[in-house]
């Protein structure tokens, strides 16, 4: 029996085109996520000229903008950044759940990584912690995930449909 080989992405072959789609709502938190994401991409060798930023009103609008970016720009990866903070109504669940589900579906539909850097938190304090203080910067973490997936997918070559047909 042949041993199972292991394949994983690295942070060496990550240059390419990245689009960051950003929800402006809660911008006082989200701006830090964008800074962390851009810094991480550039530090790992992505040319700053290959990073585009698209602004949308909020997290709910992210999936539509991401879909259009994937259709038109065809980037190597998309980073979705935003912040949904729980309030006293069920609005939180609808926005967070709908946004997350749609983004997951888009990455499968377009065979392109969509890194989820949308904070879904209980309070503004938690959001601030995840935007660069106590809990790290989730924008930087989304950038790392995007780069690793770009590298991983390159291990399988350019023709993603090659093995799927019987």
From TrEMBL:
Active site (UniProt): 91
InterPro entries given in the database record: LS, LS/RS, LS/RS_sf
One Pfam family linked to the record: DMRL_synthase
GO cellular component: cytosol; riboflavin synthase complex
Biochemical pathway: Cofactor biosynthesis; riboflavin biosynthesis; riboflavin from 2-hydroxy-3-oxobutyl phosphate and 5-amino-6-(D-ribitylamino)uracil: step 1/2
Keyword Transmembrane helix: no
Reaction(s) catalysed (UniProt annotation): (2S)-2-hydroxy-3-oxobutyl phosphate + 5-amino-6-(D-ribitylamino)uracil = 6,7-dimethyl-8-(1-D-ribityl)lumazine + phosphate + 2 H2O + H(+)
Protein's UniProt name: 6,7-dimethyl-8-ribityllumazine synthase
Source organism per UniProt: Halomonas urmiana
């Amino acid at each position: 029996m042949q041993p199972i080989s292991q394949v994983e992405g690295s942070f060496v072959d990550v240059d390419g085109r990245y689009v960051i789609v950003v929800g402006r709502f809660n911008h006082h938190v989200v701006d830090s996520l964008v800074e962390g994401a851009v810094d991480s991409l550039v530090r790992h060798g992505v040319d700053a000229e290959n990073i585009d930023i698209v602004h949308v009103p909020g997290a709910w609008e992210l999936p539509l903008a991401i879909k259009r970016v994937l259709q038109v720009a065809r980037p190597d990866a998309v980073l979705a950044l935003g912040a949904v903070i729980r309030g006293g109504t069920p609005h939180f669940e609808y926005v967070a759940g709908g946004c997350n589900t749609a983004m997951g579906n888009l990455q499968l539909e377009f065979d392109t990584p969509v890194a989820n850097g949308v904070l879904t938190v209980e309070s503004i304090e938690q959001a601030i912690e995840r935007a660069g203080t106590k809990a790290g910067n989730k924008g930087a973490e989304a950038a790392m995930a995007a780069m690793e997936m770009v590298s991983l997918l390159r291990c399988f070559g350019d023709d993603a449909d090659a093995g799927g047909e019987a």
